[in-house]
């Protein structure tokens, strides 16, 4: 079948022909006619089979009729990563060159101002990651009431990255009358449940077994000890006629270690992971596409959406924790019908991970060895996530940090004071001064008490449980009585009168003066009830 038989318009066919494509892939052949008819589509196909063009081509044809309003996009495409969103944007620019469609790309790491300006001009195609999409919606820069077509791409990756709650909220804001296209490389039960929730009587398009690998990729597995992994990687790159390659690591800190090791040994390598600023990520990826960088050490952020047809190798420096990620990683090579090779460097602790991958793809990965590097055996009892933590076995006693070789904090060394000779007279004087100081701070009702007699407990019964607080209460009482002793005493015949309550220690002098009766002159007449006295 040819593209001209799928029902696409002349402008789209002209753009496809200029790119060099004449025959659609199986997913494109089955999905494009249903999309053009306005039906919901549930597509499942392995990575590298042309899923992106299966919805971009018919969307260009559908959106070619109509005009967008300010801040009201006509279609929405949700992608899990910035690289995937940028890849879809490139497809729209490539195939929609003969259509006057406005497109906006909303991803993190880019200026809010530039993205808002595009939205205000009116957008026919809005391509976004969920996080940036919700940021602009909450700011009031996007209205979703005019969405005609919704595309949820790489839904299984959305699930892995925790975007499903955001997706559900976004879908709840869209009009019910719309066309929804749902694409995923794998179809676990959670994704199937979401598809049933979002789609209305969809047409299911499946062109290969879920989570199957391309037949154009030769897969190999090497099992070595942890300390030999970098040496094994360098040997493979040097001896296997590597043109360019992706090197996948599970953790960002391992990316830095592997990248530094390759550069130190003279390899032309770059690094790519999610914590890099967007400008640096774009620059590195473009350099790899252009051939300025031969080896790209990366995380799973590059496992999807990077469409480079001439990648010769993929190296899994770390065995992926999720078996589905293995399918996406090795799918970066062997694209567009070309041959590719994928090598996985595993350690004995990765036995369960390798077992899960082989169960998913339905076949055993071929083992191989490297001369000069000792080969190990897979262990199916160890937990790969606790590698290097030194967890004791069930029958072994738990060792201390010093036994495990961990760094422990030493207690500070206390210097003992040297012996000092004191004269007897000075010692007696110091003891007497200390005793006098204690008497000053004792409560007055205890000063005349015979210290040879034990203090009697005058507390009521049932208060024994508060005995542990006796010392604290005594300290409070001593402090209180000491404050009372320091107050100036006033005698009853003091002409200043009784103390004034409520002004603290600083009382104005005029308040302390005694009140005197007023003087009455003899000529004053006192009247009571109007009667002269």
TrEMBL record:
It is an enzyme of class 3 (hydrolase). GO terms for biological process: response to temperature stimulus; ribosome assembly. Residues 216-381 form the Helicase C-terminal domain. A motif (Q motif) lies at residues 1-29. InterPro entries: DEAD/DEAH_box_helicase_dom (IPR011545), DEAD/DEAH_RhlB (IPR044742), DEAD_box_RNA_helicase (IPR050079), Helicase_ATP-bd (IPR014001), Helicase_C-like (IPR001650), P-loop_NTPase (IPR027417), RNA-helicase_DEAD-box_CS (IPR000629), RNA_helicase_DEAD_Q_motif (IPR014014). Residues 32-205 form the Helicase ATP-binding domain. It comes from the Bacteria. It catalyses: ATP + H2O = ADP + phosphate + H(+). Residues 381-505 are annotated as: Disordered. Keywords: ATP-binding, Cytoplasm, Helicase, Hydrolase, Nucleotide-binding. Residues 1-29 form the DEAD-box RNA helicase Q domain. GO terms for cellular component: cytosol. The keyword Cytoplasm applies. It holds the Pfam family Helicase_C. GO terms for molecular function: ATP binding; hydrolase activity; nucleic acid binding; RNA helicase activity. Its EC number is 3.6.4.13. The keyword Signal does not apply. Residues 392-424, 440-491 have a biased composition (Basic and acidic residues). Belongs to the DEAD box helicase family. This is DEAD-box ATP-dependent RNA helicase RhpA. It comes from Niveispirillum lacus.
């Amino acid at each position: 079948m040819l593209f001209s038989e799928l029902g696409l318009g002349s402008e789209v066919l002209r753009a496809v022909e200029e790119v060099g494509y004449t025959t659609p892939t199986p997913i494109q052949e089955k999905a494009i006619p249903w999309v053009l008819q306005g039906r919901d589509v549930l597509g499942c196909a392995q990575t590298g089979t042309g899923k992106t063009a299966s919805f971009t081509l018919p969307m260009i044809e559908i959106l070619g009729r109509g005009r967008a309003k300010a801040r009201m996009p006509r279609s929405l495409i949700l992608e899990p990563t910035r690289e995937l969103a940028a890849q879809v944007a490139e497809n729209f620019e490539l195939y929609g060159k003969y259509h006057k469609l406005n497109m906006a790309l909303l991803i993190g790491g880019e200026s809010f101002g530039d993205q808002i300006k595009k939205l205000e001009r009116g957008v026919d195609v809005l391509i976004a990651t969920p996080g940036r999409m919700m940021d602009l919606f909450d700011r009031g820069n996007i209205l979703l009431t005019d969405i005609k077509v919704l595309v949820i791409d790489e839904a299984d990756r959305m699930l892995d990255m925790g975007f499903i709650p955001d997706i559900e909220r976004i879908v709840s804001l869209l009009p019910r009358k719309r066309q929804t296209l749902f694409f995923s490389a794998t179809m676990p039960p959670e994704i199937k449940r979401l598809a049933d929730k979002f789609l209305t009587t969809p047409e299911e398009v499946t062109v290969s077994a879920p989570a199957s690998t391309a037949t154009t990729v030769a897969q190999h597995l090497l099992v070595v000890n942890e300390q030999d992994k970098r040496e094994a990687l360098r040997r493979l790159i040097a001896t296997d006629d590597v043109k360019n390659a992706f090197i996948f690591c599970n953790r960002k800190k391992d990316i830095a270690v592997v990248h530094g090791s390759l550069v130190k040994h003279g390899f032309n390598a770059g690094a790519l992971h999610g914590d890099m600023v967007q400008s640096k990520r774009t620059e590195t990826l473009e350099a790899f596409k252009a051939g300025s960088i031969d080896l790209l050490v990366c995380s799973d952020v590059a496992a999807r959406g990077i469409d480079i047809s001439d990648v010769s190798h993929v190296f899994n420096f770390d065995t992926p924790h999720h078996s589905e990620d293995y399918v996406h990683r090795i799918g970066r090579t062997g694209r567009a019908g070309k041959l590719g090779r994928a090598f996985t460097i595993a350690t004995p602790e990765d036995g369960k991970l390798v077992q899960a991958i082989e169960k998913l793809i339905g076949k055993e990965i071929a083992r191989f060895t490297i001369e000069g590097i000792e080969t190990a055996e897979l262990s199916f009892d160890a937990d790969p996530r606790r590698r290097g933590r030194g967890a004791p076995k069930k029958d072994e006693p738990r060792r201390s940090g010093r036994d495990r070789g961990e760094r422990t904090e030493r207690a500070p060394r206390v210097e003992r004071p040297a012996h000092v000779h004191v004269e007897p007279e000075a010692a007696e004087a110091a003891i007497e001064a200390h005793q006098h100081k204690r008497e000053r701070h004792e409560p007055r009702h205890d000063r005349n008490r015979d210290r040879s007699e034990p203090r009697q407990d005058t507390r009521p019964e049932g208060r024994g449980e508060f005995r542990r607080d006796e010392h604290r209460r005594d300290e409070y009482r001593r402090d209180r009585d000491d404050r009372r002793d320091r107050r100036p005493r006033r005698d009853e015949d003091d002409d200043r009168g009784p103390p004034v309550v409520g002004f603290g220690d600083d009382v104005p002098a005029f308040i302390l003066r005694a009140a005197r009766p007023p003087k009455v002159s003899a000529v004053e007449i006192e009247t009571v009830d109007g009667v002269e006295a």
